[in-house]
Amino acid sequence: MENFGNLMDGFGIVFSFYHFGLMAAGVLLGILVGVLPGLGAPNGVSLLIPLTFTMDPISAIILLTSMYWGALFGGSTTSILFNIPGEPSSVATTFDGYPMAQQGKATQALTLAFMSAGIGALVGVTVITVLSGWVTQFALKFSSPEYFAVYLLTFCSFIGMGSSSPFKSVVSMMLGFAFAAVGMDGMAGNMRLTFGITELIKGISFLVAVIGLFGLGELLQTMEEGLRFDGIHARIKIRDVWEAILSLPKHWMTLLRSALVGCWMGITPGGPTAASFMSYGLAKRFARKKDGFGKGEPAGVVAPETADHSAGTCAILPMLALGVPGSATAAVMMGGLMIWGLTPGPMLFIERPDFVWSTIASMYMGNVMAVILVLTTVPMFAAILRIPFSIIGPMIVVVCFIGAYQISGARLDLWLALVFGIAGYLLKKLDYPIAPMVLAMVLGDKTEDAFRQSMIFSKGSLGIFWTNSTLVATIMTLAMLLLFWPLIGRLVGRLRQQRTPN
Amino acid sequence: MFKAKLITTLLASALYATAAAAAWVPEKPVEFVVASGAGGGTDIFARTIQSIILKYKLMNAPIVVLNKGGGAGSEGFVYGSASLDDAYKLTFGTNNEYLLPLVAKMGYTADMLVPVTALALDEFLIWVNANSPYTDAKSFIEAAKKGDGLKMGGSQSKDTDQTLASMISEATGAKFTYIPFKSGGEAAVQLAGAHIDANLNNPNENLGQFKAGMVRPLCVFSSQRMAAGPKVSKDMAWSDIPLCKDSGIAIDNYQMPRTVWLPAKVSPEAIAFYTTMLKKVSETPEWKSYIEKTSQSDRFMTGDELRAYTKQDAERATAVFKREKWIVQ
Q1: Which residue segments constitute the domains of chain B, with CATH numbers given?
Q2: Residue A335 forms contact with B (CB below 8 Å)
Q3: How far is CA A287 from CA A251, A282, A295, in A?
Q4: ipTM of predicted assembly, 2 dp
Q5: Mapping DSSP to helix (H, G, I), strand (E, B) and coil, where does residue B206 land?
Q6: pLDDT digits (tens, 9 = 90+) for B188-241
Q7: Can you tell me the distance from the alpha carbon of B243 to that of A35, in angstroms, rounded to the nearest whole number?
Q8: Quick check: A348 and B192 CB within 8 A?
Q9: Is B18 touching A (CB cutoff 8 A)?
């Protein structure tokens, strides 16, 4: 219970008018940054860093983490309203969030997303509080084979769960891997697939692809379907917010499962993106009615949001305790930490317990405050959908292209966004799922690195994925089970059928 | 009479010229292009300088920091050299500016940027896990000579870490399997978890693990011991770490300069302005504390001295690249 005492000390430090003011400012700025596509949490936080130079580290980290929470919530908002995820980890939220908004249930979708995200975050911080000592030990056990196994598990939980054939999922995924391979090959230090184009050296940003595939592709389809959003006819009622909150207990199983997946992926550290995809996949697999997914199923919003935020909060722990940032934003904050004169690592907990535990305490309060603040913005954002499509449509196009350009200021990205937009439209028409491609683009690089590092470790023997540790063997077995689950399920079913006549 | 007038005119114009030279000041926001991702060593270098300039108001123009770490940092150098007379793009890097184009086609050449100043030299050390049997560099090298050798982790491929690993092998006959990770930080954690046998991290990259007693430094690649100071781990200060050349590894000096660059055709006045400003930065107590915290060597170089340094550094690396057949034409 030593942790509990420390946490109380942390609360003592954080409880001040100044810190609450910083929290509110951070959250509001974060929402703004999250809602504007192309800006995103990492950029927002790095813009704020110069402001923190004159602050003491505790106030500074409170401001930055609060902004991070705000940005995560803001990112979910655009995913649901415009099908443009602000952060990689809110891609999975678009699958059911956007259809809900189209059906005029934007208020419910936003409320569900915010509430489940808040719950996920609180579970995450609780896990950090209770397990902080043990977690660092666990994370040290992770080497390249273990990382690869975790990523493979994410991919496997995704194949075959789509409404289309597993074959089409695999095709889409492989295309994603190909796009992820463009640019510098980190393992050999050579250029790949750049065709002599300088702007391709940095690779194809997954965000550009997402803006094209989801944002522009969706617009093309909406236009074909007759230029309308059903959201126009929806009335915004404050009662909807309450009803959505009251419907949460129905999803307790999804909440629990997703929070666990999130915590596990945040600590390991597989990251929030892998967590949200995996928990969406699992939610669908274990749902009684699978047909609703992808067409506006509330559980399809609850699952990725919960996992995303619990992983996001849990990822702060490896950053503080090991100096391994779990996400791009965490990497920026770590840079800040060093400028303020702190060294992330195992000794931070011993040398500066006041800093560590105030950070953790502020995570409880920051997330509660963020949920309250974003819930009050729901009616405002939902009202955006009442604007006729002929006005909002062109605006989304402009926002998409600004967002694409903003990522790295490269003109080529505008063309890429356009190409991905057309590709997204065509893939949809041909019933190829887009999600596996995006997943592969996000995790492809890391997966490849982990695989090739493992191969150097083992001198080219695949056996390393089973023999390196019981940990890696367990994860690999789980992955294989998930991959072949449809086949196994069918086999079991057939065996049962044969037995019944006897 | 006429002569006197001429002299005054000449003098006046000369004075005017110097006044004009001193008067070059940025009139719009200056971009700090960082050739690494956020949180990397170069990023902290640039942002520390930014914080000092802000604190002492060394420049009135606002500063915009841009992280362009794609392609091992080449994205930043391509961006920084996009227009050769743009005095508003200051690019921050290491020796990667002139080493990257040697090993891969990068979309820029080393001479498209000129070095303004180097402000610090980062050290390289051999680190092993604290539970490993190697207590000095000698026993470590002996172990690496046997069988398949040892597993050496490092940051990036064909970069400073792998180059140094190759130089150690060449100098001693030790064998290493080099495993590239995304960053020195990752290599540090892999070493703390005993998944690799050693890494060649900069002091700052392994500091957290060193303090906690999870890793042990064997020697430093420098011609003199690191700055004295309080104990970092339970029983060791930075200055207690022996020199590699005294432990039988015949590499005198291996350091990485922290450098600032401008496009090649920027006016000398602008270069002079930034040089003076960065010189002032390097004299502040905040800079000293950055150097101390990151355990680098304080070394301000500019002009011919810096040019000679980069030339020599590039030549030495080129020899290694040729031997390893990494050179691209």
Answers
A1: 10-122+257-324 (3.40.190.150), 125-253 (3.40.190.10)
A2: yes
A3: 11, 8, 14
A4: 0.86
A5: helix
A6: 989 999 999 999 999 988 998 999 899 999 999 999 999 988 999 988 999 999
A7: 53
A8: no
A9: no
